[in-house]
Design a protein that fits this description.
Distance between the termini: 68 Å
Strand content: under 5%
Structural class: mainly alpha
Length: 82
């Protein structure tokens, strides 16, 4: 089994985790180990499309409601002679 050391962890973070561990009836070490194992077992993050990001930060929920123009081409379709 591997070991890990986390430096410069704020005291408030450690205290919060210690209290949560106690509420679960676990040691701080066991609680944090469980958190890390659960997180590492989760599916990898799915890539987010640019459209999803735009809606997240600029959509109607954030006060931005844009009317997007219809997309169309101004070019004539190519004709291929056989």
């Amino acid at each position: 089994m591997a070991s890990i050391t986390i430096r410069n962890l704020p005291d408030s973070t450690k205290d919060t985790l210690r209290v949560r561990a106690a509420k679960q009836g676990m040691s701080l070490e066991a609680y944090v180990r469980n958190l890390l194992q659960e997180e590492s077992a989760r599916e990898s993050v799915q890539p987010t499309s640019i459209t999803e990001l735009a809606r997240k930060y600029f959509g109607p929920k954030n006060g931005v409601d844009l009317e997007l123009p219809l997309r169309h081409t101004h070019r004539k379709a190519p004709e291929f002679d056989a």
